[in-house]
Automatic annotation (TrEMBL):
This is DUF4376 domain-containing protein. InterPro entries: DUF4376 (IPR025484). It holds the Pfam family DUF4376. Residues 66-161 form the DUF4376 domain. The lineage of its organism: Bacteria, Pseudomonadati, Spirochaetota, Spirochaetia, Leptospirales. It comes from Leptospira bouyouniensis.
Length: 180
């Protein structure tokens, strides 16, 4: 079914879109649902609903909302790890691949290899770092990674217990900061 709409009023409807295209006038729109799915009328025009509004109105299932939030939480966590940790007045990334590289560098040193004396910060500038500092950086970054992993896992694990209202108004940053 197709619906001919002017502002927020239904003017006509038809199973054939061409019928409505014959009578459409300036300021009218044709939608394939009424009210139009995913849209709301505000300030004289039809605009997209927010994901929160779509969830609240049942246009997005709770399972889909949970999956969207899970992806957003993982992305939020990854961004935190990319921003990294402050060490020796610089920020160093703490992603899993950075921790692996630090571990490999420390193992190489342990096996008698030589250390270059530099590590890249989160803006890709090489910074002088002693072997001892590299060990401290690895511990600091590792602790930060563990904290981020624990927080993201906690938020994801709590999603099934959230109500429709809580899921629709979910604020990742606020939820993240509430976890010690």
């Amino acid at each position: 079914m197709y619906y001919l709409v002017q502002n927020d009023s239904l003017i006509d409807q038809s199973e054939n879109k061409l019928d409505l295209e014959l009578v459409i006038e300036s300021g009218m729109m044709i939608f394939d649902s009424w009210p139009p799915a995913g849209k709301k009328f505000a300030n004289g025009e039809w605009i997209e609903k927010s994901i929160s509004e779509k969830t609240e109105d049942g246009e997005i299932s709770l399972e889909d909302r949970r999956n969207i939030l899970k992806s957003e939480i993982l992305s939020f966590c990854y961004n935190k790890l990319e921003q990294g940790v402050q060490f020796q007045s610089f920020n160093f990334q703490a992603r899993e691949e950075d921790l692996i590289r630090m571990s490999l560098a420390l193992k190489k040193i342990e096996l008698g290899g030589t250390w270059s004396g530099y590590w890249r910060d989160n803006v890709n500038q090489w910074r002088a770092v002693t072997v001892e500092q590299l060990g401290e950086l690895a511990l600091t970054a590792g602790n930060f990674w563990e904290t981020c992993f624990r927080k993201s896992r906690t938020l994801i694990d709590e999603l099934p217990s959230k109500s429709k209202s809580q899921l629709s108004s979910y604020n990742i940053n606020q939820e993240w900061n509430q976890i010690a």
